[in-house]
Amino acid sequence: MDDRVDVCVVGAGPSGAVAAARLARDGYRVVVLEQGDWPDYRRARADRPDFESYSGTEWAWDPNQRARDCDYPIDVADSDIDVLTYNAVGGGSVVYAAHWQRNLPSDFCVRTLDGVADDWP
To answer: What does pTM read for this prediction?
Structure first.
């Protein structure tokens, strides 16, 4: 309990991991809290014919279906949408295989502001 930290990052997904690394590099004492463990990528079957049927178990986005030790049940009975989550190091990027940007209004005006590509829409 004598260890002191400057910053606590909750979640070791792409954003949390990058933020923690950057803060640590800048001299802050950082701790990262993650609900799950590292995924066992040796169990991934992306290169096998049964990938799609297997992905609905251990790699499912639905914690109710996946039921790993770090998962907790989520009641979506009264919701119009299901929760898409993965409780492990990497967070949602384990399921999405990507980082979802939260764009700023200026990101949709790159032709006007930067003279490249096109404005959207």
So the answer is: 0.63
